[in-house]
Fold these 2 entries.
Entry 1:
Amino acid sequence: MSIALGLTGSIGMGKSTTAKMFRDLGVPVWDADATVHKLYGVGGAAVEPIAALLPNAIVDGAVDRGILRAEIAKDSTLLQRLETVVHPLVGEDRAAFRAQHVDAPLIVFDIPLLFETGGDAQCDATLVVTTSPQEQRRRVLARGTSEETLNDLFSRQMPDAQKRDRATYVIHTDTLDGTREDVAHLVSQLTQGT
């Protein structure tokens, strides 16, 4: 049975880069964001149930995230209703991934809101990636994100210190080489004897 490691980190902390490092070492990685993207795409399992809730959010057979975000901003109950539809579908996809990789010594669940959604309960251990608040802000603003959007994102995410307190492991992503070395060490540590 695989060890399931939940990977998370606030925006700009290097989570996607770290997930790629696990993949580069041959570790299967399940990506929550990619799964939602697939569910929202043409023929995706979430399209029909979302159409029942919000018909105008479906454009050319797929969920239009821009319309969805605008509607959520207007209706405070909509997000919770959408989560009731989407979370079980995401959970099914994650379970199928786990079953598909049952012989892998280690699998990673890349989940941005791991603790916020209770996803850590499905994991054997958790990893939080982190960097300084200054570097985090620099990275996110360099992507073209506005200060206002960044502050809104921060308000919806668990504070970094709280995530680190809850994590089994913490990796500082200040440099690529240091991060790569720490990921390799963690993979070795978790797969030793499996």
Entry 2:
Amino acid sequence: MTEATPTPASAPALPDRLSIDPRSPHHVAAVFEHDIGIRLNDRERFDVAEYCISEGWVKVPAGKTVDRKGQPLLMKLKGKVEVFYK
């Protein structure tokens, strides 16, 4: 989390790892009640499906390809990850 951006008073602390998939053990619904931003290597990304700050990666959809269950295939991008509330 970036110290320059203040956290909203009612918002929970941002976790080290977060996923948008509700079936994932890393999904925290309370975080998604607020707008969050994710930067990878100092560029803001809007297509992130999952991130991990400590390991330094984000997962993004790999084009329009989907698996046999209809979920998008994800590719892992590595770098410096910053997460903040907008």
